[in-house]
Design brief:
The chain has 435 residues and is of the alpha/beta class. The chain contains 15 helices and 18 strands. The strands form 4 sheets. It has a 6-stranded parallel sheet. Helix 7 packs parallel to helix 9, helix 9 runs parallel beside helix 10 and helix 13 (296-309) packs parallel to helix 15. It is globular and about 55 Å long.
Amino acid sequence: MKPKLGILTLGCSKNTVDSEHVLAALSERYEIVPQGEVDVFLINTCSFIADAKEESINAILEAVELKKQGLYRKVVVFGCLGQRYADQMPELIPEVDAWFGARDFAPLLEYLGVERDIEQVSRRLTTPSHYAYLKIAEGCDRRCSYCAIPFIRGAHRSVPVETLVKEAEALAAKGVRELIVIAQDSTYYGLDLYGKRELARLLRELSLVEGIEWIRIHYSYPDSFPEDVLEEMASNPKICKYIDIPLQHISTKVLKKMHRGVTAEQVRALVQRMREAVPSVVLRTTMIVGHPGEDEEDFEQLLEFVREARFDRLGAFTYSEEEDTYAAIHYRDDVPAEEKQSRYDRLMTLQEGISYECNRSRLGERTRVIVDSCEDGILVCRSQKESPDVDGEILVKYNPELVGGLGPDELVGHFLNVEINGADSYDLSAEIISL
């Protein structure tokens, strides 16, 4: 009998892809089980901000306790936490059997008895079978003042177009219908390999893969945003009219301290260009509040910008000082924790109202959705305007007469035509029109 192996993946979707490659490499030697008693329990960790580090450490401590109770024989940790604190963590939590970094796939596999490196194309999906993340690059050449990712993941390294197309073909053969393109900076794609940004060409090539029907872009960057991506999005029906673009702030003073490479005027102009080039585009962004040097006037500028831009989706987090970053070395963390939280609450309260108004404007809209799951007779769906895990959902009442007699569970991964008939600040509801 094969030894049993379990895994817990923390952090972002880029970690999800890493775990899926690791599981594919291990699947011949190990029986992969979702829970219960295992011979090896893997934890893929995150250390982006303080909350992520705390979550990772708590998960490790919990696994170590289960090891003491006999549920796990070995606990093995890899990913960003191990990469960033390789010298400290083994001493702090010696009960962990082995530690590996975010770039230590070959040593990890060797430790687990598999003598080969990760294959780019080979994946064992942990997402629902109809969508998958496609990591088009590793690392980052940006040097945002607050961010430790370049220290953890290294320099930007694009995956060749041909390799990504093969991976997409392999995923489509498994039933994947939606690709979510990810990288630390997806719009930087291709500069290192081809001497120019090639995200538009990659999107075009991916859209030719038989079986892939939706492709959406995450983690784009505002500085030097490639205009040909907007042209491809506007003309190619397979490219979702959806851009995830973390802007982080609008105050030119704060953006400069963040080393973002853009001014307030440039950010506003980019948002306007996106909406002019792709009139129906959904914009998702992320903001940081409480960065060193942010005063009340800067924060008011941010609130005014959010009122003005009316983003369809907006997330935020409070500044967390990360050791070895430029901000930690050169700035004083001068915004009190209570003020950071207050600003966060004010921003998210504002966005909640905007989100509600945006969702209400969609009442009566007829749209195509994909079914992600079924819960108590309700189909949990998304349109091109919603990305999994980070956005709201469209809840659709199951009606067997309109879906050719297919059962609710059989509809998972299928597309439906629906009409939106209800909205709150996060989710929508709809009724089926047809398959």
